[in-house]
Amino acid sequence: MDATAIILAAGEGTRMKSKHAKVSHAILGKPMINWVVDATIAAGCARVVVVVGSHADEVRALLDGAYADSPVPVETVEQRERLGTGHAVKVALEATGISAGPVVVLNGDLPLIQPATIERFAASVAEGGAAGSVLTMTPPNPYGYGRIQLDAEGSIVRIIEQKDCTPEQAAGLLECNAGCYAFDGAQLAAHIGQIRSENAQNEYYLPDMVEILKAAGERVGIYHCDDFRDGLGVNSRSQLAELTAIARDRVNGRLMAEGVTFIDPAQAWISPDAVIGRDTVVWPQTHLIGRTSVGEDCQLGPNTRLTNVRAGNGCVIDETVAVDAVLEDEVTCGPRAYLRPGTHMLRASKAGTHVEIKKSTIGEGSKVPHLSYIGDTTMGAGVNVGAGSITCNYDGARKFPTEIGDGAFIGSDTMMVAPVRIGTGALVGASSCITKDVPDGALALERSEQRIIEGYADVRRAKQ
Ligand code: UD1
Ligand code: CA
């Protein structure tokens, strides 16, 4: 499909009562604008133009971050004055010079639109010879949407905004404008200037293109979307929550069909871009954010949040927060592990209870089971780190590395003051503060000698 998508994201989003752009609000951890852009790219649009205005820099940053390497160009156009959706499209056409070819226009607050819907709907214009088409839906509660007025033959006459409806129209016209339109670019460019702002909101309404094109003798169609949820918009926080629940059910439903078990699919929030392998069990209160992938036969949660994490097969990830981390097969984490960016857990390694790891490699089969902080560390295979051991990687100004060789045994409550190297197969006695390198195979012990005063306990009790 050689269409250009124009996405409208310049509005103030007043009803959100937010300090941020409406389209920056996330559904399953993914900003709304990215849902819409991704849907247009997946539908096969060849070029994506996003109209920004209110909080323009915030929206641009969301796009720059996500589409810097996209094969489909995603560009922005600024609408300085927000005079309505019709004006936004006019600004986009003028700035890009688009004046031919198929053009799909989508509201930026339409996150659940499906690529297949956009594709089929846009094709209906390209193939059917109409100058424009409107995606419509019949939601249970039509309040707030523009209403589709049909003639006796069932053809669209015009769209009447909620605020311009008579009470009879508001109650009787139940088919709604989903805020997604397909146009023949030449017709759109030729007539966009005819939109007027004499209406309840004094805005230039894009939906007025229906009447304008029809008055010019052109055909305009409607494409009714059978699943109304595809066409729901987000104007308020309660709609944001409502759509989050729908998105969650859709994603979890797809994953269950693919062979993932959910203890309770209403209590897991999985990014649409996440991947989960077969026979993995998702426990309640699991959140997978961003491009997270989890292999087969894993246990996820309860109470787990993974952001941009890659986990292999057979991992147990219990009450864990992990960000930008890689977990190879059979890794065990938690309960209560915190794996920060740059953590790489090799096969069958363990980050246990109340363990924090940052920018470190934990070698194959190595274990950090209890109450430890490991930062800027390269750990070999088969290492055991005793409870309460810590790498002291920061002197208040700079960070330093720690290296722990294969098979080393670190006694409990060891402080490893970096930069430091614990040799292969070395032993460190419990409660040592290690400030010098420990050679391979050596024992390091740094501990004041224990004193014994025989009978003292009885002496003290007698005094009391
Ligand atoms: C709009 C439609 C309505 C439709 C509904 C579907 C109009 C006039 N009405 O109403 O028929 O049923 O969407 O959800 O189009 N925007 C700009 N620049 C502007 C104004 C808005 O870019 O000057 C953007 C907004 O950021 C938003 C989108 O256009 O993403 C729609 O604007 P919004 O104010 O949410 O329109 P609705 O009242 O929902
Ligand atoms: Ca809206």
Outline the structure in words:
There is one protein chain. The chain is of the alpha/beta class and 464 residues long. Helix content is 21%, strand content 29%. The strands form nine sheets. It has a seven-stranded mixed beta sheet with strand order 5-4-1-6-10-7-11, sandwiched between helices. It has a seven-stranded parallel beta sheet with strand order 12-15-18-21-24-27-30, covered by helices on one side. A seven-stranded parallel beta sheet has the order 13-16-19-22-25-28-31. β2 and β3 (30-31) form a beta hairpin. α1 (32-42) packs across α4. The chain is elongated. Uridine-diphosphate-N-acetylglucosamine binds at residues 8-11, 51, 53, 79, 82-85, 87-88, 107-109, 145-146, 159, 161, 176-179, 205-207, 233, 235.
Write a concise keyword list for the protein shown above.
alpha/beta; binds calcium ion; 9 helices; seven-stranded parallel sheet; seven-stranded mixed sheet; 464 residues; binds uridine-diphosphate-N-acetylglucosamine; elongated
Task: State the gist of this model.
With 464 residues, the protein is an alpha/beta fold. It is built from nine helices and 41 strands.
Topology:
Layout (H helix, E strand, L loop, with lengths): L3 E6 L16 E2 L2 E2 H11 L4 E6 L3 H12 L6 E5 L6 H12 L5 E6 L7 H14 L3 E6 L9 E4 L5 E5 L6 H6 L3 E9 H7 L17 H7 L4 E5 L12 H21 L3 E2 L5 E3 L4 E2 L4 E2 L3 E4 L3 E2 L4 E2 L3 E4 L2 E2 L4 E2 L2 E4 L2 E2 L4 E2 L3 E3 L4 E2 L4 E4 L1 E4 L2 E2 L4 E4 L2 E3 L1 E3 L4 E2 L4 E3 L9 E3 L4 E2 L4 E3 L2 E3 L4 E2 L4 E2 L8 E2 L11 H8 L1
Parallel strand pairs: 1-4, 1-6, 4-5, 7-11, 12-15, 13-16, 14-17, 15-18, 16-19, 17-20, 18-21, 19-22, 20-23, 21-24, 22-25, 23-26, 24-27, 25-28, 26-29, 27-30, 28-31, 32-35, 33-36, 34-37, 35-38, 36-39, 37-40, 39-41
Antiparallel strand pairs: 2-3, 6-10, 7-10, 8-9
Helix pairs in contact: 1-4
Calcium ion binds next to loops.
